[in-house]
Amino acid sequence: MADQSISVDALSPAQTEAKAETLGISKGSMPAGRMFVAAMLAGAFIGFGAMFFCLFTSDSSLPFAVQRAGGGACFCLGLVLVLCCGAELFTGNSLMVCSLFSKKIGAGQLARNWAIVWLGNLAGSLVVVFLVCASQMGAMNGGAVGTTMVNVASSKASLAPATIFAKGILCNVLVCLAVWIGFSARSVVDKVLGIFLPITAFVACGFEHCVANMFFLPSGLLMNMLGVGNPGAIALEGLVANIVIATLGNIVGGVAVGTAYWFAYRTRENRA
């Protein structure tokens, strides 16, 4: 007789919050070396999604809405790999605040994780940037892929700080909701289908994801330095400012999601 205790339903919100706390404890106690390598993987995975986005959106014959939605769908590759293959993503780790608020990890553990994972994401992204440029991917579609990389980076680097910050908040609200769905899922299929719409939405709407921008901005800058687009189209200070401000906005958006779900669904057993 089949085990009647086995369920295919997604975890309830309270069960998902408890799982988020458990995952936060393991993330907070992970050795630094393993954490950095896992973060490099996440940076590379998000870079793959961004690379796929640039390829798809280089087709200028597509209508605007199709190009944005299709590019967003392509970008989902990144978070699918992160959640299904296992990796440490800075933006998703905003949800560690659930463990912090329940006093299961300390502020020092949280800060340590965020710092190491952010740097690891950057390192992994830059490896993919180098490999993509070395592979001559920018020459595809008659050079349109390289031009798209430069245009995407140029537009991001020229945004006003307040705009980047607001886009960063909105971005990580959607990303952390996608990660939350991933926490609640019981199968790989559940995870892939569950994250599809939130991630497609944030990319299609042009929101700012600091880890994705660790690929978009350096790849565009490198392609520009190699002669694609107008010389000096991307200012280095604009590149740095975008990633820093997007990071701050992403923290605010992610912490808001984690705080709301911790407050609404923490159980008595999970309280310190």
UniProtKB/TrEMBL annotation:
It is found in: Membrane. Its main location: membrane. Keywords: Membrane, Transmembrane, Transmembrane helix. One of its GO terms (molecular function) is formate transmembrane transporter activity. It is a multi-pass membrane protein. The keyword Membrane applies. Pfam families: Form_Nir_trans. The chain crosses the membrane at residues 36-58, 70-102, 114-139, 159-183, 195-219, 239-264. The keyword Transmembrane applies. It comes from the Bacteria. One of its GO terms (cellular component) is plasma membrane. Belongs to the FNT transporter (TC 1.A.16) family. PANTHER family: FORMATE TRANSPORTER-RELATED (PTHR30520), FORMATE_NITRATE FAMILY TRANSPORTER (EUROFUNG) (PTHR30520:SF6). This is Formate/nitrite transporter family protein. It comes from Ellagibacter isourolithinifaciens.
